[in-house]
Amino acid sequence: MPAETAHDRRRLSGARWAVAAVFCVHGAVTGSFATRIPWIQDHAGVSAGQLGLALAFPAVGASLAMPLAGAVTHRYGARTALRGLLSLWTLSLVLPALAPDMQTLCAALFVYGATAGMSDVAMNALGVEVENRLNRSVMSGLHGMWSVGALLGSAAGTVAAHLGTDARLHHLLASAVLTAVGLLACQGVLDPRGSAGERPPRFALPPKSALAIGAIGFCGVFAEGASLDWSAVYLRDVLGASAGLAAASTTAFVLTMAVARLAGDRVVDRFGPVGTVRAGGVLATGGGVLVVLAPHPVAAMAGFGCIGLGVAVVVPLAFAAAGRSGTNPSLSIAGVATITYTSGLIAPSAIGGIADLTSLAVSFGLVTVLAAGLVPGAGVLRGSGRGATSGPPGPPGPPGGRRPASAPDLRA
């Protein structure tokens, strides 16, 4: 094969930073939305239980739309597909805040979830492509950039909530800025050529060998999704925090997730996957207890931060372990991705349903129990290492190793 040139390496490096910017934009939409959930709840006039039901609609939309992303990419090309799907996602941010009642909120969140899922698949596929061509791990850093974007979005949302800004205006401005940045970033991503007659990617049901590993991912993602979507509501409704302080709890949670993901590879290299997840499980459990027993909003914020720090690396290590399990590593990784993604989808609505029947404190008691399950269950990750994905679940990466380094096939 032709040797890789310095020019090729520069273009690959540029493509890596471009897709990193895409991940950042995607995360910023999520952070912008999460901090204004209390405002959206009040505007639509829905209870905690109704809000939990409404928050299930992004899951429905994503589940139905995600399989279509592969076909869109296959037909229009990776770069064009990402450009369109990411723009739909950033523009959909304005919809939930416009909803005046439960029915329109559910419809808005369905569209929000569908565009989120499709753009998530497209950007993860390009992230895996960059990783393969560089012949080294970059996915952890890319998903760390997703967390950085979520942090930036939630920080802006915290300021907007503190100032009492109407979420409709806030999300309109955020949508416009993020759409422009996303379109600019998409210009630099790879546009890989597909093989003639190649079928669009499909999702697989999890094999039995992936269930134990998927259960660990389930616990981690459940705690992450519950904390991300409900931390602001918890501080406001349970502890009487102001809108600005409640929104700041989401920012604190996302901050710890971002720091942990960006530093995760070094920690795993030193302590190993089992030791890292067990320590994280202890930290997340302590955080959950602190949230449930917190007498003051600041204590609850610290608890949410501990949860984020504790569960941040669970999903990447679960994917890494899946790649080394079973007779078909690719199917095992897809299975773990299916289980963990399902957890992220059901967590927000489960928390709302339990809160409607009992209280939000009881709901986060369940989160604490699941976090504690990471401690005894971490042993199933033995033998996993670096190179797994993290952040918002997307299509699984290549099983076992990387492609041999070769001259990249890049389009201008």
From TrEMBL:
Subcellular compartments: Membrane
Compositional bias segments (type: Low complexity): 402-412
Species of the source: Streptomyces spongiicola
Main location per the UniProt record: membrane
Pfam families, sorted: MFS_1
Keyword set includes Membrane: yes
Cellular component terms (Gene Ontology): membrane
Keyword Transmembrane belongs to the record: yes
Region of interest: Disordered: 384-412
Gene3D superfamilies named among the record's database cross-references: MFS general substrate transporter like domains
Chain segments annotated as transmembrane: 17-39, 51-69, 81-99, 144-163, 169-190, 210-228, 240-263, 275-294, 300-321, 333-354, 360-381
GO MF term (any one): transmembrane transporter activity
UniProt protein name: MFS transporter
Topological type in the membrane: Multi-pass membrane protein
Start-end of Pro residues biased regions: 392-401
PANTHER family from the UniProt entry: BYPASS OF STOP CODON PROTEIN 6 (PTHR23514), INNER MEMBRANE PROTEIN YBJJ (PTHR23514:SF13)
Keywords carried by this UniProt record: Membrane, Transmembrane, Transmembrane helix
